[in-house]
Amino acid sequence: MKHIDIVHVLKQEPSLHEITVRGWVRSFRSNRFIALNDGSTINNIQCVVDFENFEEETLKNITTGAAIEVSGVLVESQGQGQNVEIQVSKVEVLGIADPEEVKLTILSPKRHSLEKLREQAHLRVRTNTFGAVMRLRSKLSFAVHEYFQKNGFYYMHTPIITGSDAEGAGEMFKVSALDTKNPPLDDHGNVNYKEDFFEKETNLTVSGQLEAETYAMGLGKVYTFGPTFRAENSNTSRHLAEFWMIEPEVAFNNLADNMDLAEDFIKYVIKYAIENCQDDLEFLENRLIQEDKSKPVAERQEMTLREKLHFVVDNNFKRVSYTEAIDILKNSKPNKKKKFNYIIEEWGADLQSEHERFLVEKHFKCPVILFDYPATIKAFYMRLNEDEKTVRAMDVLFPGIGEIVGGSQREERYDVLKKKMKDMDISEEELYWYLDLRKFGTCTHSGFGLGFERLVLFVTGMGNIRDVIPYPRSPGNAEF
Amino acid sequence: MKHIDIVHVLKQEPSLHEITVRGWVRSFRSNRFIALNDGSTINNIQCVVDFENFEEETLKNITTGAAIEVSGVLVESQGQGQNVEIQVSKVEVLGIADPEEVKLTILSPKRHSLEKLREQAHLRVRTNTFGAVMRLRSKLSFAVHEYFQKNGFYYMHTPIITGSDAEGAGEMFKVSALDTKNPPLDDHGNVNYKEDFFEKETNLTVSGQLEAETYAMGLGKVYTFGPTFRAENSNTSRHLAEFWMIEPEVAFNNLADNMDLAEDFIKYVIKYAIENCQDDLEFLENRLIQEDKSKPVAERQEMTLREKLHFVVDNNFKRVSYTEAIDILKNSKPNKKKKFNYIIEEWGADLQSEHERFLVEKHFKCPVILFDYPATIKAFYMRLNEDEKTVRAMDVLFPGIGEIVGGSQREERYDVLKKKMKDMDISEEELYWYLDLRKFGTCTHSGFGLGFERLVLFVTGMGNIRDVIPYPRSPGNAEF
Predict the structure, then answer these.
(1) pLDDT by residue (tens digit) across A387-405?
(2) Number of other residues whose CB lies within 10 A of the CB of residue B187
(3) Aminoacyl-transfer RNA synthetases class-II family profile domain: which residues (chains A, B) (predicted)?
């Protein structure tokens, strides 16, 4: 008989019509109550077995982690927390899970640390926490696509392997098909990349922005959603060597339009999660409440997870110029009392995470968009303001997360861009195609990048970015 | 004034309300008719200028490729092919396109070969053909997500950088952050990957299947949609070194379910394109009709592009076992007359593209699903049939494209899989986590991979896979 996903079964009314479900045993109490989960929802269906009617051999194999098929009728549940349960007429063990072996894994029914779960990343999606996180990740991904498609953006796949290393967003991984031990050398004794697969040196992309700009100049509104890479030795809870980035790029948008887009977009996807992932969010919220109980009162969250999400959706992001932000920071208590690791002394300073968090968490107490940064601390492609000191850059800062979006209005003037590239030693020859955009029908345009994992961190309330991607890549770690 | 996307303007009724559009000039006829395109649709809006009311300097700069802003009222069009046009009251040139420079590019108004367009891939999206192809690519991508999300699948991001090279789907690219010229060596004089970023040798993934299986065992139904790589020197019109793959994986699905899923899925996304990309499909269809006119009658397409798409959506895919297919091929004319390059002599032969195309294009004249292939020519993870000779593999074959989907029911039996890995010399130590899936609640499960670019090729009717991805990667080519 065709089986039904448990998420649908749980919404059905009791009926005499027999149904079949398949899934994995979460627990089997009193030789009578099977809690069965199939991943379609965080909720289990309770399957009630009248043990006298079943073979002992079968019952013996219904243990935590086993895959089983259950048939029966759906009846009103006597227990708490569920409306319906299955009165089992037939049960078949599809795949056993030897309790002695299970004991050695994170599938065993006790609390495991997140570090332990990370070591068994191939099994952790079977736990409530990771099931919830990964279902949310999936729904958020879809919300991203839905938002852009509804608003007339075209999705584009920018290249992963790139021959250009001009963008300078970070250290790059090299890609090669050469024999690493004995690579061919040229006349100067350097590795001869002319003999490599692409006949040149290639890297993994750090951003699809420059290519996205080429498409915005043809299709108008585009977005990317793909993997990007940083070969940086950042062993933190907020950095990954491989992560997914979303980069919209819009012809004719100025910086104000860009800020509007970022805010509207973020609110849309968070709202989508609130509306479509209630059960998983409730679980993750309770997880955080439990976690908080072991903390000193002063360190506990002021808002629950869903309150925090609603807060973002319901309030305007505060827009503050870099210059205003510097004034606020200079006059702030932690600056005056030298509590910051980096004391803000003058305009032009690069903001550190501690400053961003002060602005967002202490001063404004809401998401903040900082804009018009000093040109000296930002990338070559950002549009120079009339003051010739600042560029039309923007960063969206989130509580607990810090920078979640970085974007800008792009320099659309051929001569200005060319001079900037020269000043910053960026090869005009290599980026001729990027300059071409300013030669043929150039126009005001803007875009931003959003690190998808940071968004998932925020929405799930998880603390470590390695726990919101299935198989995290970080220094020393490329397991699975 | 806020501008409106041209796709929306073209659907509006004439009105005295002034509107603004922005876009790029496709042509400017008789100092009077501007054809303006903004990428939101293949269709241009005609903007009618009363040249006596505008400065000569402005009019001079309205040339092919220039970016302009136009304001005016929408009136009924006198010309053919459009319902409305803009009676221009104001025009501003945002970015010029020097006709002398344009002449040197593919933006110049004459026919350019696809090869030439490929060399200027940063500009080609501004042509009708590539605008249409890339809009279709975007819509097809969304259809992929919508299909799976509607059907309760969870999207997962499988790792791009992988420490495993066990799958054997093809040659891999190496990823490294080491100094390639002077890499650190170990005691044996080999490159010491312990000093590399991930402290081991790493590659670019060839498939996310094995990781997707781990998630199917927790979430039930999952799919991937991400880039995959092959370092193979295949300089053909059907191969890329970097391409996007879709890989659903479903717990409890057997091979018949898997075939149903593949067929249902493909029909859904093609239907989505038919319904949501009418203008672009019409353009591409006419393009093919024009192209056909220069061919001998015998080589012309029997069906138009949209007829071909409808044919796939409206007909059942023919399901044929490998054994039946061999019989058909052995007795076929081209085999008997030795017209095939590879003559089919006996059961066990690997099918070549020419055989697949014969089955699909000559014999069955519809999409075909071949299944139950000899174990010896298929991957280690495919489920062995009771005959112990064949495995539960399936390939979906499309006219003109060949293999568009490859999939299988997976070997879920621990002992059988272990033996198979041993026989095929696949490291048990490296894939311990894959074997674990067969230890803890194993179950029947199946999945497949669909090369996204092959699907886009089919739907757009383009002839070369390099023309359906923005920046193709192939031997000797990693430009942009």
Answers:
(1) 999 999 999 999 888 899 9
(2) 6
(3) 134-470
pLDDT at residue A69, as a whole number: 98
Closest CA–CA distance from residue A183 to any residue of chain B (Å): 8
Instruction: Please tell me what DSSP assigns to residue B440.
Output: B
- Which one of A96, A138, A149 has the shortest CB-CB distance to B155? A138
Q: Scanning the structure block, which residue is given the tokens 């759906």?
A: A74
**pLDDT average per 10 residues of sequence, chain B (480 residues):** 94 95 96 96 97 92 98 91 93 98 94 96 98 98 98 98 76 93 91 96 96 98 98 92 98 98 98 98 97 90 94 96 98 96 96 94 95 96 97 95 95 98 93 97 98 98 97 96
| Pairwise CA distance, residues A33 & A43, whole Å | 15
Q: Quick one: which of A236, A218, A238, A209 has its CA closest to A406? A: A209
Query: Across the interface, which of B149, B154, B202 has its CB nearest the CB of A478?
Result: B202
Please give the domain boundaries of chain A with CATH numbers for all domains: 6-105 (2.40.50.140), 128-171+206-467 (3.30.930.10)
Q: Which residue has the tokens 């592009």?
A: B305
Selecting from B412, B436, B443 the residue whose C-beta is nearest the C-beta of A123 gives B436
Distance CA(B244)–CA(A160), nearest Å, equals: 11
Residue A270 to residues A211, A259, A368, Cα–Cα distance (Å): 28, 17, 16
Residue B400 is predicted with a pLDDT of: 86
Cβ pair B180:A180 closer than 8 A: yes
Among the ranges given (A75-79, A206-210, B28-32), the one the predictor scored with the smallest mean pLDDT: A75-79
DSSP state of B337: T
Q: CA-to-CA distance for A135 and A40, rounded, in angstroms?
A: 9
End-to-end CA distance of chain B: 35
Give me the amino acid identity at A407: G
Query: Is A29's pLDDT higher than 90?
Result: yes
The residues pairing with B90 across neighbouring beta strands, listed in sequence order, are B71
Single-letter amino acid code for the residue at B273: A
**Residue type present at position A382:** M
Q: Give me the residues paired with residue A88 across strands.
A: A72
Average pLDDT, chain A: 95
**B404: Cα separation from own chain's centroid:** 10
Q: Could you tell me if A33 and A48 are in contact, meaning their C-beta atoms sit under 8 angstroms apart?
A: yes
